[in-house]
Each structure stands twice: as structure tokens, then as C-alpha cells.
Design brief:
single chain; mainly alpha; two-stranded antiparallel sheet
Length: 229
């Protein structure tokens, strides 16, 4: 029975992602963002529980990627599609479909992750959950800075930049801790503390700052290290 628990959590991630897609296409981007959070929680705990119960299977790995493709691939693409639809810089009805570049590059990123032996402990390229959190934070920022997020040019630029980050060769640390040693994980601990403070005060609008901090901390963490280290 216990071998099915991680897969059940993965399926819950997928279900939450599907619900988030429905919210996105209905225009309720706030609820879509909360669905992403729920998916992220299930995505974290399916791996955590699998390690805790010493359960590992090929179907679990494939199921995890398929669930992530919906929750952290299709869903952020749908949110960007809606943001571009609501923007006013261009009158072309085809511009919003550029938002699904996020979905395409998320698929490439997940496929690359599955076959890249360098990514057993950390990531090469931005991981899809972090990318999705950034995308779904944009509607919240829009409330405070409507002129900024309503710009089609900015949204297209964000789409292109985030798509490229997904398949980049930038080394990004995961939040798995091999030990609790402060010296070994100092940068990770500092990142988590600062990020928690930012989110506590700014909620979703803190995510862009967390993203920049995440990439910067990763570059610092892996400075001078090769992929074999």
C-alpha cells in the first residue's frame, strides 16, 4: 500500500494543476495562482514521502513529469495567454498565443531533466515550479503597477527570457539538504530565510525578488565548481 502513497500525491498535484487551468481560462488568475501553490506542496511531498518510505519506481518518475507538465507547464502558459489577451499594446488576436512558449519550453526543460545525468542533485536551467510561481505572481503585481504588467512588449520579453532560462545551462541549486551543516549549506539557508521574510511582507509580489535572489545565490553557490563537483 505504501508504494502508492507518493503516486497519489503526484496525482493530487496533477488534479490541482487541472483546476488551476480552469481558473486561468475563466480569467480568475488569483485562484489559478493558489492552485499552483497547492500543486507545489504536493510536488514537494511526493518526493519527500517517496524518500521517507524508500519507495522508487519508473512509473512514479514518469507520472511526476506528466503532472508537472500540466501544473508547471500548461498552467503558466495559460496565465501568460490571459495576461497578453488583456494587454493593449497590440490589436493582433495572435499575440496572446506567444504565452504558450512557456508551455513549450517547460516541456523541453522537463524532458531534458529526465535524461540529464548532471541533474541528479541540482538543476541545470531554471526549474519549472519556480518559473511558474514567477508567472502567476504577475497578476498580483498588476494590481499595484497596472501600467507595467499591461504592456504587451514587457510580457513578451518576460515570456522569451523565462523560456530561455528554463533550457539554459545555468546551474541552480535544489532545496534538498544532504546535511544540516551551516558551512556547507550557508547560501541555501540564507536564501530561504530572506525569501521567507520577503514573502511574509510582500506575499506574491515578492516572487520576482525571490527569483532574482535564487539565481544570484545559485551562481554564488556554484562559483568555481564544475558539474562533477
Amino acid at each position: 500500500m505504501k508504494k502508492h502513497i507518493p503516486n497519489a500525491l503526484t496525482c493530487a498535484n496533477l488534479l490541482s494543476g487541472c483546476i488551476g487551468v480552469v481558473f486561468a481560462f475563466k480569467g480568475d488568475l488569483n485562484l489559478a495562482a493558489y492552485a499552483v501553490l497547492v500543486s507545489g506542496i504536493f510536488d514537494f511531498f511526493d518526493g519527500f514521502v517517496a524518500r521517507l518510505l524508500h519507495v522508487k519506481s519508473d512509473i512514479g518518475k514518469e507520472l511526476d513529469s506528466l503532472a508537472d507538465m500540466v501544473s508547471f507547464g500548461f498552467l503558466p502558459g495559460a496565465v501568460m495567454y490571459q495576461l497578453l489577451t488583456a494587454s493593449s499594446d497590440f490589436s493582433s488576436p495572435y499575440i496572446p498565443y506567444l504565452g504558450f512558449l512557456i508551455t513549450v519550453f517547460s516541456a523541453l526543460r522537463l524532458a531534458k531533466f529526465n535524461i540529464d545525468t548532471r541533474q541528479t542533485e541540482d538543476f541545470i536551467g531554471l526549474n519549472t515550479p519556480m518559473n511558474t510561481l514567477f508567472i502567476v505572481s504577475l497578476p498580483f503585481i498588476q494590481k499595484d503597477y497596472p501600467g507595467l504588467i499591461n504592456s504587451s512588449m514587457l510580457l513578451i520579453a518576460v515570456t522569451v527570457i523565462m523560456s530561455l532560462l528554463l533550457v539554459s545551462e545555468i546551474r541552480i541549486f535544489s532545496l534538498k539538504f544532504g546535511s544540516r551543516d551551516w558551512a556547507q549549506n550557508k547560501i541555501k539557508f540564507i536564501f530561504l530565510i530572506v525569501s521567507a521574510l520577503l514573502i511574509a511582507f510582500l506575499k506574491f509580489t515578492a516572487i520576482p525578488f525571490v527569483l532574482i535572489l535564487y539565481i544570484s545565490a545559485s551562481l554564488l553557490h556554484f562559483r568555481g565548481k564544475s558539474f562533477e563537483d
